[in-house]
């Protein structure tokens, strides 16, 4: 594994070098804060509404906490409506040391009305390739300034990098068949972007969620995402729904 440190810590706050999301993309991403035992709510990370009551995000950012505030319905933090949760599901083979199977689901106490936000479309088991993908996050805009959290959702573009090439950079323990690697265009994941959705450029379905990166943020290395298609069986089991049959 490369001697350069890999960022695996908890999120602090926007995509480095990204663009503000347009006003109509109010259902693209959720913002989540979590609470330790008897502590105030702190830290922020990103998630995706996949049913009217389930938020898909990374296990890394929800393990060990007890309550969650989930903001939805706007690309601006201050304009969001917030919903509560005290229930999460973490993949049973999640390995926090190497961020393997880094995926989890937050279950909200109440269903989200369609007027607030609509669930994102989950990918098919075998999604088509796209020349580029859009990814979103509520994270730092300056990797050297932990006070640089912007209040508007940001996005960037990425193209897929083979797992073989990614393993040559990160090593085989951090890059498994459940990961997806992307080379960004003048942007990059940073603290708080974990769990943020990556969307197929043409088909507009969810493809992956942000996971980790090589320090520093936007350092020229590929970013690592969780491949949602790889975990469809687990996801549909948690949300208690059948996997759609492709082609129907």
From TrEMBL:
Q: Which InterPro entries match?
A: CLIP_Serine_Protease, Peptidase_S1_PA, Peptidase_S1_PA_chymotrypsin, Trypsin_dom
State the source organism's domain of life.
Eukaryota
Question: In this protein, which residues make up the domain named Peptidase S1?
Answer: 15-240
The record's similarity note reads:
Belongs to the peptidase S1 family. CLIP subfamily.
Protein name per UniProt: Putative trypsin-like serine protease
- What's a BP term from Gene Ontology annotated to this protein? proteolysis
What positions belong to coiled-coil segments?
none
Which molecular-function annotations from GO does this UniProt entry contain? serine-type endopeptidase activity
**Key words of the record:** Hydrolase, Protease
